[in-house]
Design brief:
The chain is an alpha+beta fold. Helices cover 23% and strands 35% of the residues.
Amino acid sequence: MPICFASARTGAGVQELLDVLVKLAPNPAEGNPRPFLRGEGAGAEAFAAEPDPAKHVIAHVFKVIADPFMGKLSYFKIHQGTVTKDSQLYIGDGRKPFKVGHLLMAKGKELVEVPQGVPGDIGVVAKVDDIRFDSVLHDSHDEDHIHLRPLEFPEPIFGLAIEPAKRGDEQRLWDVMDKLCSEDPCLRVERVMSTNETVVKGLGELHMRTLLERMAAQYKLEVKTHPPRIAYRETITAPAEGHCRHKKQTGGAGQFGEVYLRVQPLERGAGFEFVDEVKGGAIPNQFIPAVEKGVQQVLQTGAIAGYSMQDLRVTVYDGKSHPVDSKEIAFVSAGRKAFLEAVAKARPIILEPIVNIEVTVPEQAMGDITGDLSSKRGQVTGTQAAPGGMLTISGLVPMSELGNYQSRLKSVTGGAGSYSIAYSHYEPVPPPVQQQLISEFRAPPAEE
């Protein structure tokens, strides 16, 4: 039913609003609670918690806050049973309970300690590190596998690479990010090994700006940010052979190792294969892993532009050794240089990640969006009508072209558009882009 009231005094208006809510808002026994699920997977059984103070406790954690003075605060709504001070509660299917030392309730900005909470109440517990957003609290192992159907949140797709401004703050950065991610289900942090970066993903520029301001103000942590590097890859397109004789004499025992190998491309996504076809002990068995180690060094650092290599096979088929001077380090160096020589002859190329993109926009913006995607080397694969006069456009687009896509989409649609992306596959970059990436790469000095 509609609720209307007016008052000349602000204070009286607030009091009248509270009176109306007390009188007309449904109590837990009259409302329609979200159904809980018992069990896992497709066989999970839905049931409704009964707002009965005498039954087992079932409560749901809907908010987590990292307070700088009180520690981690977990807000939960009691759906069933009674929570009191000194209650023993389990978190999800955890086997060890925690004790409710202080049961708090929010009263404006303050947290007030109360003796108990009943169905419909919102309680707060502090300093329980194991509680996470969306956890179910209960007091019996009969409810171990009870959970709510997960809420659907927007996928965080706007990323920033971050690093501490001060050396030595790396662990502190991860501790702070863990606290912030526990509060915000639309915030994620990950270590991208392929680019050696820590990347934080959120919902947009405003989300990231708020995050950085809070890190500086609340946790006194200053960080440096930049757009994440694109995870390019290198591969080859033709078979080739390489050879290196590594010989070094330093006055005493020297170094000697000679390696012949061939490389050939594999289908996209096949990874890397190393094959030993050495016959007659031309390279003793104990030095074959050293040859592979030298090849792996190039695979990790790249051969033409500094990106890791994939989708190729390396076959070692011949070589020579010396009974005195052959050492592991000699075959590591020979394997690395022979592999670099073979790659240079095998028409190497750079691959870029392609993502599936779905853009939901007002129907009148369709032409602008499809034209923009095409100008960014994208390919539109389909369109589908969405509720409310919206249209969902599906396509494939290089990840490197989406650096400021959220701003462009906001500008074109007046803030009404949204998009999501998911990794699809790798494809060769255009020749001009490859030349630019190669020109920007500064190869490390060769090791002897």
